[in-house]
Amino acid sequence: MVDEDVIPLSSMPVGSKGVVEQLSGGIGLTRRLMEMGLTPGTQVEIVRNDIGPIVVRTRGVAIAIGRGMANHILVRKIM
């Protein structure tokens, strides 16, 4: 069964919020994302998602993430 509430961070519209569920990719990418504060259970809000990097707010800080990296961050949408 596919969980339709869990989507790549790159698919979330501006203003939406979610909770990081899973980080996919190699150990280097996973480590880098965790160093940026994007760990499972962390809440994120999409600030910008148009051309160029995606900007998210998490833990009170805005972070720019490349689209390739954002595709490896699986997020559960919250209301």
Give a description of the structure.
It contains two helices and six strands. With 79 residues, it is of the alpha+beta class. It has a single domain (6-78), classed as SH3 type barrels (Roll), CATH 2.30.30. A six-stranded antiparallel sheet has the order 1-6-2-3-4-5. Strand 4 and strand 5 form a beta hairpin. The radius of gyration is 11 Å and the shape is globular.
Q: Mind telling me the CATH class?
A: Mainly Beta
Order of H and E elements: EEHEEEHE
CATH fold title: SH3 type barrels
How much of the sequence lies in strands comes to 35-45%
Strand sequence of the main sheet, in spatial order?
1-6-2-3-4-5
Question: For the terminal residues, how far apart are their CA atoms?
Answer: 22 Å
In CATH, the homologous superfamily goes by the name: Ferrous iron transport protein A (FeoA)
Overall 3D geometry? globular
Q: Which structural class should the secondary elements be placed in?
A: alpha+beta
Number of extended strands: 6
- Biggest β-sheet strands, sense, barrel: 6 strands, antiparallel
Give the fraction of residues assigned to helices.
10-25%
CATH architectural category: Roll
**C-alpha Rg (nearest Å):** 11 Å
